[in-house]
Request: fold
Amino acid sequence: MHDDTPTGLRSNLTSYGDPEFALFLRKAFIKGAGYGDDALDRPVIGIVDTESGFNPCHGNVPQLITAIERGVMLAGGLPISFPTISVHESFAHPTSMLLRNLMSMDTEEMLKALPVDAVVLIGGCDKTVPAQLMGAASAGKPAIQLVTGSMLTGSHRGRTVGACTDCRFFWGRYRADEIDADEIAEVNGRLVGSVGTCSVAGTASTMAAVSEAMGIALPGSASPPAVTADRMRIAEATGTRAVGLARERLTIDQILTPAAFDNAFRVLLALGGSTNALVHLAAVAGRLGYALDLEAFDQMGRETPVLVDLKPSGSHYMEDLHRAGGVQRLMLEIRDQLNLEALTVTGRTLGEELADAPAPFPQEVVRPLADPVHRGGSIAVLRGNLAPAGAIIKQSAASPALLEHRGRAVVFEDAADLAERIDRDDLDVEAEDVLVLRNIGPVGYPGMPEAGYIPIPRKLARAGVKDVVRISDGRMSGTAAGTIVLHASPEAAVGGPLALVRTGDTIALSVSGRSLELEVGEEELVARAAEVADRVRDVPQRGYAKLYVDEVTQAEEGCDFRFLQGNEVVGSVPRRH
Ligand code: FES
Reply:
């Protein structure tokens, strides 16, 4: 932006062929809503309102908007909120991931269309923050992220519980007949203690943490729970700072630099965060022309132990992390591994902000580097003839005994096949087998649902089996745990090798060797590929679903649409040292 760029209500005028008339008309309409001339001369701060009756994770958005507006007006700006679509994990058929790119397009186009000098993005539930960062990165205006904050934990028969690691834990016990229908119904009312996002290191918490690490959200803003005074004060401060961003014209590309992405990946790993964040960060980076370097990420993982004792890799909840000092406490612990010169939305560097962070005190949630929760890095990148473009495993949430494993493949063709057969008593499956689920990738499902967390077959669960090796081209919730290989790329639906596996084949997984191999001869695989290529697949023929399958990229490119990515690749992240 140049200094003579129109600001406030004068920006982004509607094209009537007469700019003065366009402004005259715009003011006439908004004055009809009760605004006076003084208000209309102020910097305009847009507030993206993602409240929805179908999104309990955003249930505090009205209160947040009030606090943001207060902050904006205290700083002399004019706050104006406007809606975009809002996506909740459990209220999005067939999967929220299908709608993430739509929400990013909605966000981008509204930011481009409206006369906002800066914008506060209120996100929270898994896909919303990625969608907003993708859209805002493409729109290029000054932007600041505010997350809704985590929900409170609940209590079930004396045990602290929280969504959604404990949802899965208790559901697993119910499937194994360890608890009855009455108890699972009771648990259902205990898991979610309030509005807000999932209370463990799932995707929402991870994206909140990486937003703070990237400097696109205020220092200390990731961890306050949704219904606390801390959360409201952060909202007020976010509104105030948005006015500064507008006045300084501090655009998002000055914040989301390669140094900022390095910090995001580092915090993702040290947090033991969600594997989904890797896909989302690839998509956000891709908007700015940075390609994800999986090898550099794997190398970073080898140097970055998991320090935060949060479920599902550990034992605490987000509210515990907040009391322990939040993401700043974590970043102080890995200070030497961060790019401290990265600029944040405060206008100061990350290093300057950390120097002013609250002094560390004894606590049990963020461990010191010398005593990590998991030494090996939380997410490892695998390659091999089953995933030539990569696959990942969250090794910190896996069973150590299964990280090096050879077993017989038991193949499920798609999610429907899995649902039909997984609980049958006649399913031919043993604890040492490797469960393979295909056609749940970006194109295959479509939308790459979180179906990679293949349930333990009921007959094995009843026999006490808690974990088996599972492989898919899908994703898994950040709240889930197990020895689960995800994002196998290219996916089966676009001809990836997962399509060639047959029940009875042998698969070898070596996390230490970073390999995933199908032990079938090359000649046989070529013959199978020819057979698979002849199969006709059902693909959407209209509407957004058609756009999605026509344009979506694979996991390592963030599952973004090709036409939304940056015009050219200008670098890769994380950077190699
Ligand atoms: Fe919204 Fe988990 S369902 S954050």
User: Anything to note?
Assistant: The first helix runs from residue 19 to 31. Residues 57, 88-90, 125-126, 197-198, 202, 204 surround FE2/S2 (inorganic) cluster (CB under 6 Å). The chain has a mean pLDDT of 96.
